[in-house]
Amino acid sequence: MDTQARRRADDAPVDETVLTAVEAAMIRIRRRQSRRSLARPVMKGLAEPVDLNTLAVVDAVDEGADERGRDVTVGFVADRLAIDPSRASRIVADAVRSGFVRRVASQEDGRRSCLELTSTGEEAVTAAHRTRQDFYSHVLEGWDPDEQQEFARLLTKFVRSLDDAARG
User: Fold this and answer.
1) Is the pTM of this model over 0.90?
2) Cα 106 off chain centre by
């Protein structure tokens, strides 16, 4: 393979400097995320304490609620969090026990158990969105509005490509 560029079948080449820059940025993002620096302020703003795994479940259940017609199950949570189903089952059970999520019967198949947020879970989602968006607003406030729009567009496109690569 060419040292200056890598090429997937029928795709435009990707310059090595781009690959190096993306890799370095993703490493820094991963490190920051592994420290859960955004989750801790969310937890401080809640009336009920929530652990980091429960917050991840709450986010996944909230995300699933946006996908019309899709049952939000433990399998859905496992998929969204990229963890094995047995681990997802354990952290979902903790989220249910702590009152952020409840199990309900599927409207498609009554034998199937689905997940939905409780009012406490909805409060956690609202606090999480507010805290993260306040943080991102602070980070992006010095950027030109066109740069902000372009960044949002490209980041969304990049994440979709990550999702496609994980599926394929």
Assistant:
1) no
2) 24
